[in-house]
Give the backbone structure.
Amino acid sequence: MTTDAHHHADPDAAAREALRLIGPDPQNWVPDRSGIDHNVTIVGGGQTGSALSFALRRAGIGKVTVIDAAENEARAGIWLNAARMNLLRTPKSLPGPELGIPAFSFQSWYEARHGAEAYAALDRIPRTDWADYLNWYRRFLGIAIRYGTRLRRIEPADQHFRLQLDIAGQVKVETTRKIVLCTGFTGNGGPYVPAMIREGLPATLYAHTEDAIDFTALRGKHVAVLGAAASAFDAAGVALETGAASVRLFARRPSIAAVPITRSRGYPGAYDNFYKLPDAARWEQALRFRRWGSTPTTDAIERTTAFANFHLHLAAPWRSVRVQDGRIVISAASEEFRCDYVIVGTGYYVDLAARAELADFHHEILLWRDRFVPPADDEDAFLGAHPYLGAGHEYLEKVPGAAPYLRDVHVQNPAGFVSFGLPIGDVPSMKRDIPTIVARISSDLFLADILAHQRRIVGDVAPDFGEELYASALRKRQA
């Protein structure tokens, strides 16, 4: 019997053996505090929240809860919702939520089901396979996620937080000592829709790529896509495949961004130590990415150019958009175009004040613009609005001593981009940042109860044996 056939018989065999070999989870060592429901609340049950939950469990930190606003597993995260690419954009070899245990990796999971040759033949990971793998990961490792639970407000209290949660329409308050925000791109503001579109079109005639879009309703329709990064091409591809009469994609730039400018710093030295770079160097890296642009993948472009009814408009920023005689009229590059629907692929804005859950203290959070003044030519309001995070991904105070509780809110979402040099929360950040956050949470919880731990570590320990064990070997005393 070949190895592949053996694996197909029981695809979880290797993972189960790995679980046996790493041994049982450590017991929860965090002392209980009266009136505290959770030691850690993870907000967001996607790939990041799931991996963090497992890592905290392996660190012996109990009373961890994971909440997600989505009503069920299929609606959670982006992979079966806003993500529309056929293949993931990240290389298949990147370490992910397995956290250093090979048998829990995508490769191991995939090979156990399809064989090593099938994995070797993959260029990049199919999106739906990644979603299936993440569902397996959660079930296999027993990661419980509380779906249908939306965080409304974080209220600082004495050495903890009161969380206002909306659970199936009922408001409930729970308490927690630590919070990790695994809230994706919208967790720092929201989807960015240019004012001319918001003001010029009724909401029924446009959608952001973040939204649930009914592509079947666009069959036979003429569609305009604004933006030229990956999600714009992905949405254009789905519209074409679903039978749109035509799709026009408009880009500001004279060519599609094709240089993955951050790749030059993917080696371990720069990856592991990025946070230790001076502020000016980190700012320069973020600015280079902004200037070179976010690159769509080759297959995302090929997916659209395969259609004769796809039209690409470069150096064509929109000047105006209006409705006339029931159709949308777009003025771009000194021409007018008519269409039936607009898809906005213009990314996200960063504004912590826009997040209702941060309303009590967003003004206390240190931002990059508070900390670093770039040369005049290098100013960038979008980057300046990002929070300036501490080494454990925690919020820092704008005014030292004014909001000490901020150190207990950790950020594992793209708001960490300027501080940590990666799209935080994506696969590339997992290997480095999940252990970093877990180490900081462990350290903070330990030091917060240091007197209890000092008592515990000098506590009575029963002897392993009594003197009778060696009595027979004592040299007989001289009479």
Notes: The mean pLDDT is 93. The chain is about 30% helix and 20% strand.
